[in-house]
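Pipeline run #58 for the internal structure catalog. This entry was flagged by the ingest filter as a single-chain record with no existing model, so it goes straight to prediction. Upstream metadata was stripped on purpose; only the residue string is passed forward. Reviewer on rotation: M.T. Logging verbosity set to normal.
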Amino acid sequence: MPRSGGTRVPGETRGRYTVPLLWSRRSAISSPLPFALRVESAPVTLAIVAINVLVFVCLAVASGSWTHIPSRVLIPWGGNDGAMTLTGEPWRLMTSVFLHGGLLHVGLNMLALYQAGNLVERMFGPVRFGVVYLASGLLASLVSVWWRQDVVSVGASGAIFGVFGALLAFLVVHRARMPRQAYARLRTMTLSFVGYSLVIGLAIPGIDNAAHVGGLIGGVAVGWILAATDRPAALRLVVVAVVLALSGAAWQLAERPVAVNPVVAHFAAVQPLLAARQRQVVEDLGEGRLSAAEALRIIETELKPNWDALIGSLAAQAARQKGAPDALLAYAQLERAGLDALSLGLKTGHPSWFETAADLRLQANAALHHLPGVDGRDSH
């Protein structure tokens, strides 16, 4: 079962890390291979590395830090935030693949991509390699958000796992064409990378292993479809159908987190402060610690303007959406009316205004206890 995020943790970011390969470019790529490579260069790999580095530089400048990019910066740039991805912004499944949470994060991932991509792109060709990378990244993000929805997930390693999955599929499809020793060498290096990275992901908190597994499975499936050109078309179509069906099921089964309503969240943050300040003014006034003139100054210059601003935002929200904003607006208007009555009582000294202010305050308190959604979340 997926781990549902009953309470979102907007400050928590889960990275997708890879461990760079422990083979040299010369031994893995330059040495003769027992099969013909489709191309002699890897332009798509270099382009993807360049894009990731450029995006990371922009993120670092925006956040003011090279070592840690906070989720408050990653989310506007397209981080895979379950509350947003699953409630109308599915494009985050792809954009999050090009975001990283720090210099070490992007450095490790790009080194692994450069090493593996130089070989795998030359096996599949640029276009097919691009399909493998993007499809694997998309599936990695989808599995990540299906597994856990209360964090922000970013990183290219799900797609990089897909590159290794495609390499495994290529080795299986073309095993008969390869000498046993060459096949064993490539298989061992690939499985070592996958196994070691998954173990590291389990041992270190904050690593998105769900994305790694999703990317690996996607890479194996897409890589097999693209490599097995001699297999019956019907069989390849079945694999495509299975992948699409499982992807659709993951999307549908992912528990939709409660979306954050910014107006209600603002109310939840501001209301306790205003209510506490208002209560303190009334108590200090009643016990003689505050003069009528000072109380009037606080009411007119501090409390009323803040309540007016809150009422304005709630009124605008209530005009667009029924439910919680209406109830919040009614409560805020009672508090504001109570301040008007208290202000008139302080100016005129007439007891009836103080009684009206106290009555409105009691009504506001009763309304507050029956408010829905004051935890800052919209239940739609």
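catalog note: Residues 262-369 form one domain.
catalog note: The chain has 15 helices and three strands.
status: ready for reviewer M.T.
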